[in-house]
Amino acid sequence: MSLQRFYQLFSMPSNKKKKSIYKCLIVHPPIHSPYQQKPIRVTMPLPLKVLFFLSLVLGSSFHFIASTASSRSATAPVGVTEVEALLLWKASLDKESQSTLSSWFGTRPCTWVGIRCGSFGSITHLNLSSSGLKGKLEGLNFSLFPNLTHIDLSINSLHGNIPSQIGHLPKLVYLNFSFNYLHGFIPNKIELLRSLSKLDMSNNNFTGSIPISIGNLKILYVLYLYNNKLSGFIPQGIGLLRSLSDLKLSHNSFTGPIPASIGNLINLSVLYLNNNKLSGLIPQEIGLLRSLSNLGLSENNFTGSIPASIGILSNLSYLFLLNNNLSGSIPEEMNGLRNLKSLQLTNNKFVGSLPHNICLGGLLTNFTVANNNFTGRIPKTLKNCTNLYRVRLDGNQFFGNITEDFGIYPKLNYIDLSNNQFYGELSWKWGECHNLKNMKISKNNISGEIPAALGMMTQLQRLDLSFNYLTGEIPKELGRLTSLMDLSLQGNQLSGNIPLKTGMLHDLQTLNLAANNLTGSLSKEIENCLKLQFLNLSLNRFVGTIPLEIGDLHSLENIDLSQNLLMGEIPPQLGNLLMLETVNLSHNMLFGSIPSTFENGLSSLTTVNVSFNQLEGPIPNIKAFHEASCFALQSNKGLCGNTTCLKACVPISSRKGLIWIIIPPLGSLLLLLILIIGLFALCRRCKSKNKTSEEKNCEQIFGTSGNFGKRFYQDIIEATDEFNSNYCIGTGGHGHVYKAVLSSGQVVAVKKLHLSEDGELTNVKAFKKEVVALTNIRHRNIVKLHGFCPHAKHPFLVYEFIEKGSLKVILNDEKQAMELDWVKRLNVVKGVAHALAYMHHDCSPPIIHRDISSNNILLDSKFEAHVSDFGTAKFLKSNSSSLTSLAIAGTLGYMAPELAYTMKVNEKCDVYSFGMLTLEIMRGNHPGDLILALFSSSSSSLASSSTSSPITHHTLLSDVVDQRLRPPRSRVAEGVVSTVQLAFACLHANPQYRPTMQTISSALTTRWPPLAKSFSLIELGELIAH
């Protein structure tokens, strides 16, 4: 028997030990022996018995000494049990992890990597941080390490749950499982770790709530649970952790209020609860945390005002309250925060002015209060706050002279003063901010010239001075800003040429000089801006040709040179721009054909507009041109191609080669055709004599399509079973709509019109003239009108059949409404806008719809919008008794309010109806109650009488959009917000202030501006122009 086996025997309980020793003294025969059935007892000589007895005594003594030295509570022998536990865990890890732990073998763990032992050989430290371990933690039996004081398994790829045996480590002081993939609940056994001083389980996937018993960890001074998926309330028991100095619970899903017991943590210096779903008021007890230096409560749903007690926290250096629903003014007590280094209040509802001594200590580096309702001048102490690094005052109502109120900031890196009411001129002092990388002062009332001193800000990467009243020329000194990536000067009154030194801006990615008075030719030096992605020079007075060198800008994605005085041909080199997505060359004087290079190189092109030029020839055979709206191709000299908006192209070479072959047989065919026509006319005249008087009333069907004429009248009557209700697919204010499958197999929509009281149509002659004009209109978003039959009994209009039917029906159907997701709804709005813009601005004379409603918007199988009944409303008799004037046509709930007293219909009436329709699309139902609550003088009484929550300017946009759909995200959310904002602009009480449909159509095709705050925090009042 080996000594190791003796050792194992001595380690057993006494009752088992005797049996095992007895078994060792019994000799068992081989298993294969068939002759021996019982064990053979062997007698032991006396000397051997003595030797065995001495070994038994010595082994037991050794075991007793070792066990006592290691731990009183240890029930396992030192070394062996811990070794086996570690080796078993190693075997459960992946091969790479086992390779990392290659030193883990044998029976001496104190020499293994990541292991430290105490004086008696028991393991006290397990530190395998950043070791690349992959596997489960359950494979490690923590109960076998009674002397463990430190565990650090952070920054690995461990997954699974935390074993419940973690509570069997009474000496544990430090526990760090951060940056792994652990999941499940935090075990309640954690409360047994009464010696624990630091607990870090951050950056995992833990779920559930914080154990209520966590308050038993009395000496804990660091608790990190951030970046998990924890939920529920923060337990009141957390206030029992009086030793706590650092508490981080951010980036979870905690709900409810901050417990008042938080005020008991008088030693707390860092408290981060940001990025949760906490709500309620910020408790006054925060003011009891006199040691607090860092307070982060951002990205929650806190309401109310900032408690004045925060002003008592003299050690406070960092205060983060951005992205909440906080309101009220900033307490004056905050003037005493002399150690404040960072104050972030962005995206709340704060009002009033800022504390004047907010930078009294001179330590402030980060000051961001964007997107609130602050007013007044900026704090006086801010002018001399020379440590400022980042400043955001944008999206408020600050005013004051920008020349006088701001100083020199040598450390400044970022400043945004956009969307305020600052006035005055830009000072040369800005040039002294040598470390400034981002400068945004757009949408203010800044006047004067751009100072040449800005060229001294050599670190500048973004300069946005757009939408001000700047005059003069663009200073050539801006060419020194070699790090500049974004130059936005659009919407000013700048004049002169583009400086040649602009070509020195090698890192430039965005150049926007649109809507100024710039002149001259486009500089060839632009070829040096090889990183340029966005180029907008529209709405200026540039002359000359488009530089060939633009074709060298291989990173270019968007180019807009529209509404200038450019001439010449489109350079073939533009076909080299493989990344190009959007190109707008409209409203110039370009001529010639569109280069064939577009077909080979512009595979990424999605949007194109070459309208209002002198272009001719075939359009490129690529998707962008085939799917372009008629608006984008119209008003050229002779474009042709395979699209509904243009005539088909006829190759010239084919005509010349075949002309002499065709002429002889053509003459014969012509004579034969004349003979047939004569015979046909003779037969028709004979038949017409036998027609009834009823048939004579439908002498012809007006229209340009060769597929429709009087011979189809009977076909339509038969296809609808004389307008049987079984074939009715819709009802409008002017008639019923029927689906008709003609004998040829073609499907059309037939609108049978209401007759006047005397049984006749109103103003038939004028209506016929209008229909003839309308049948010539072709636009992808307008339902094609094939013709009209003025039959005395069955007058009807023949339309193109649109598969899915009216938008109103789709929005009222639960299943179809959910299929009509946010992206499709935005496309529907765009389609309607493009159709209206086309009829208002590109038809001569302009055509007004008069009856824009969800009933007159049809959707095809791809949810593409098609506007029906265009231009016919003013002639049709409504079956509604509330509309008696033929001059006024429309649907109640969509009609512009001025029609009630002016009786004058113009394009702005359509704009109002479009706004109502857009809100209906976004909301999922008619927005009448919303509009009344927001714009009516009696809105308060109306809202209070409603059973639902009252709608006010503070109502969240997310609460009024269609709740059947999931909230929009990222770029889609930007589109929804911008579209709703446009819709509100269309509903302005004064028609003169409503945008034109051309403006709306253009706005809907440009890139959506990024959201200044989360979609869920945007209020209706922020989207309504005041």
Automatic annotation (TrEMBL):
Q: Just give the chief location class.
A: membrane
Keyword Acyltransferase among record annotations:
no
Q: Per its UniProt entry, what is the enzyme's top EC class, as one word?
A: transferase
For biological process, the GO terms are: anatomical structure morphogenesis; plant organ development
Record's GO cellular component terms: plasma membrane
UniProt KW keywords: ATP-binding, Glycoprotein, Kinase, Leucine-rich repeat, Membrane, Nucleotide-binding, Phosphoprotein, Receptor, Repeat, Serine/threonine-protein kinase, Signal, Transferase, Transmembrane, Transmembrane helix
Q: Which reaction does it catalyse?
A: L-threonyl-[protein] + ATP = O-phospho-L-threonyl-[protein] + ADP + H(+); L-seryl-[protein] + ATP = O-phospho-L-seryl-[protein] + ADP + H(+)
Supply the SUPFAM superfamilies for this chain: L domain-like, Protein kinase-like (PK-like)
Q: Which residues cross the membrane?
A: 657-682
A single GO molecular-function term is: protein serine/threonine kinase activity
Write down the membrane topology: Single-pass type I membrane protein
Q: Where in the cell is it found?
A: Membrane
Q: Which domain of life is it from?
A: Eukaryota
According to the entry, every stretch annotated as the Protein kinase domain falls at: 723-1011
Answer yes or no on keyword Kinase: yes
Question: What positions does the entry give for ATP binding?
Answer: K752
Return the EC number. Answer: 2.7.11.1
* InterPro entries on file: Kinase-like_dom_sf (IPR011009), Leu-rich_rpt (IPR001611), Leu-rich_rpt_typical-subtyp (IPR003591), LRR_dom_sf (IPR032675), LRR_N_plant-typ (IPR013210), Plant_LRR-RLKs (IPR050647), Prot_kinase_dom (IPR000719), Protein_kinase_ATP_BS (IPR017441)
Which protein, by its recorded name, is this? non-specific serine/threonine protein kinase
Originating organism = Theobroma cacao
